[in-house]
Amino acid sequence: MNGLFPTPILTGLLPGAEEVNRSLKQIILEKERTSATTQHSNLGGWQSTWDFPEWGGDALHYMLESAKKLANRVTTRRDGKPVSIDWKVTCWANVNRSGQGNEFHTHPGAFWSGSYYVEDGGIGQDPSLGGEFEIQDPRGAAPVMYAPELSIGGAAGASMGAAESLSPRAGMLIMFPSWLQHGVRPYGGERERISIAFNLRL
After folding, report:
1. Model pTM score
2. Spatial separation of the C-alpha atoms in residues 143 and 159, rounded to whole Å
3. Across the 202 residues of the chain, what is the mean pLDDT of every consecutive 10-residue run?
4. Please, are residues 102 and 41 in contact by the beta-carbon 8 Å criterion?
């Protein structure tokens, strides 16, 4: 059996994340104290303006450069030849507290999008706190409309017509195609859940 139309989801831990996150947390929380939130997909919480690269400092630059290098490793021309793209970046910070999350959305105008976790709010040790990164099946409900009790064998079959979720941890980087519907489940902890969202475009 061959699989067609795959949806790549890239996950990994950023080298040196502990030091990077200390710097980013301080920068982001200070900006939150002095700036009003924007309103896009966020359900409560605080979201910065999209000029984060202008005030995020060396720590943000390091994270974004790591993401761009990863994008170049997994992106090719249609003929399979490697690329070396000078990706343009749009980037913003998110702070969620108890009960807050993000509705499902996509990121038009970009090729890759991603989330990086500065502070997981305790989710890494206790997944019951929620705040999962949730991804919808890009085929929508179509695979389960006729026979919802059936699936296709293998790990990828169980989520047909549904959603998959990833439990974040501090230092974790997630990258995905920008057309993929995604959101954030409500967070139930008592600390800040701090993340950085970004788009890579041509």
Report:
1. 0.92
2. 10
3. 82 97 98 94 92 96 98 95 95 96 94 98 93 89 76 72 89 97 94 97 95
4. yes
Q: What is the DSSP string of 135-164?
A: EE-TTTTGGGSS-TT---SSTTGGGTTSEE
Q: What does the alpha-carbon distance between residue 30 and residue 8 come to, in Å, rounded to a whole number? A: 35
Rounded Cα distance, 25 and 111, in Å: 27
CA distance from start to end of the chain: 35
Residue 155: its pLDDT value, please? 66
Residue identified by tokens 């705040």 is 131
Q: 87: which 2 tokens?
A: 């990706």
Three-state secondary-structure class, residue 3: coil
14 touches 63 (CB < 8 A) = yes
- Residue 120: name the closest of 194, 185, 174 by CA: 194
